[in-house]
Amino acid sequence: MATSDANVEIGHVTLVVRDLPAVGAFYESVLGLEWIGGDTAEARYGVDGKVLVILKADPEARKSSRAEAGLFHTAFLLPDRADLGAWLNHAAEKGIRLDGASDHLVSEAVYLHDPEGNGIEIYRDRAREDWPRKDGMIAMVTDPLDLADVMAQARGPWRGAPKGSVIGHVHLQVGALDPAEPFYAETLGADLMARYPGANFHGWGGYHHHLATNIWNSRGAKERHQPVTGLAEVGLKADAEPLAAFREAYGDSVADPWGTRFTWSAK
């Protein structure tokens, strides 16, 4: 299953950064995104002409802390396991340090962060029919990932993010799960797909998750005070029916209880 099989999916994230050239170079050289356009105040990066990441420069912005609500990570979904293997070979050759690597049963994922501490996941999905289920929900775990086995699947060198790469999901930090769940499940209409200690996972159209919320670092966090570095916006892509519903109910955008803003546009 591709995330685009759902009637709503992640389109892009917008990040506020202090050093636009340095962060932009990271998304180009490490993640292999292409520069699509921009200037000294804003730059856009993506795949095959589709914008996935927008960087907005604000050298005076307060640096966000790990205890705040906001971004946990942006997760870039690659088309298949061979692509993940090619990226891991690239990371090894370039000495790119990973923060972790996990087998979640529904996916295989590696973790790192950009120069300003914004979390990143790079992953590939297993086939939908292989996603384990328990008590009517998708069952995810955090098991060790066999990096050598994934790397051996590469069919050639990494040549940048391949066509078909998307932001598969965005994982967020919130102050509490109880007020987060109705916002994501009811306001945004993303079904609760899985629970995990300290985290919930929401998705549209049966996907294991397009959005996740956790309190691992941010329990009790209040609304973020702007201007601050990190996540400024999550852009959703929606089919005509949910797009019309979003616009009728909320206009151009809506924010969760901690100030994380969501916008929408047509697929």
TrEMBL record:
Domain VOC residue range list: 9-125
Pfam families, per database record: Glyoxalase (PF00903)
InterPro entries in alphabetical order: Glyas_Bleomycin-R_OHBP_Dase, Glyas_Fos-R_dOase_dom, VOC_core
Superkingdom field: Bacteria
The protein's name: Glyoxalase
Source organism: Thioclava nitratireducens
